Amino acid sequence: MTLTALVTGGGTGIGRAIASQLVSDGVAVVITGRRPDVLAATAAEIGAKHVVFDATDPQAVQAALDQLPQTIDILVNNAGANMARQGLAAPAGDLAALKKLWLADYESNVISTVLVTEAVLPRLAENGRVISISSIAGVRGSGSYGPAKAAIVPWNVELAKKLAGRATANVVAPGMTVETEFFNNTLTDERRDFLIKEIPSGRPGLPEDVAKAVSYLASPGAAHVTGQVLHVNGGGYNGR
To answer: InterPro entries under this entry (predicted)?
Structure first.
């Protein structure tokens, strides 16, 4: 029987790599996102289906349910962004702008994950998998983005308890990962070199590295792994 996966933010970068890996694993994949052209192109290239909606919008998520699979074996919550990297600024002393930035990061990374999960939870199959993407920033800090990514971890612990005996819920936390839209052309060569020097493996991560970790957590071999955080960062964070 073919499994079905739903991957949010699946049009580019890590989300695309995850979707492509799951297709290679023999899973029927549906990717979601806000950009119709990008989603359509990716879906055609990797052999997936696509549904366009904004995962931070409750009405949009609700409206999209008619287009989403009735049974979901694997849910990957990948949608999210570092809003400062996307150009949302908070000049020193501008508290209104600071509030806007923090709320935008929380909405993009946490609310999107919670809304989609709650919406499709009734469709999650027995022995299903919920895998949410956090970040090394959640433990090492990064403005408003780090705390938003950190919030996914305790939420996931509660979800794992809620799903106990029915499905697993885990988090994958990538470190510095290139070949994505994350840095949005804001990463200087000097900063890139500095970050790489902090990685024991000697290289930045690739989307495929994260995809392999998700593939494992989605597999039967990870049936006894739940409520956990799998760090994929080349040793850039060692738990201390």
So the answer is: NAD(P)-bd_dom_sf, SDR_fam
User: Which one of 106, 145, 216, 237 is the catalytic residue?
Assistant: 145
Give the tokens for residue 74.
């694997």
Burial label for 197, CB within 10 Å (0-12, 13-18, 19+), is exposed
CA atoms within 13 A on the CB side of 173: 24
Q: Which two tokens stand for residue 76?
A: 């990957």
Q: Report if pTM > 0.90.
A: yes
Token couple for 85:
């990297």
Q: Domain extents for the chain?
A: 4-232
- Band of residue 239 on the pLDDT scale cut at 50, 70, 90: low
Instruction: Name the β-bridge partners of 132.
Output: 77, 171
Q: Indicate the fold that domain 4-232 takes in CATH.
A: Rossmann fold (3.40.50)
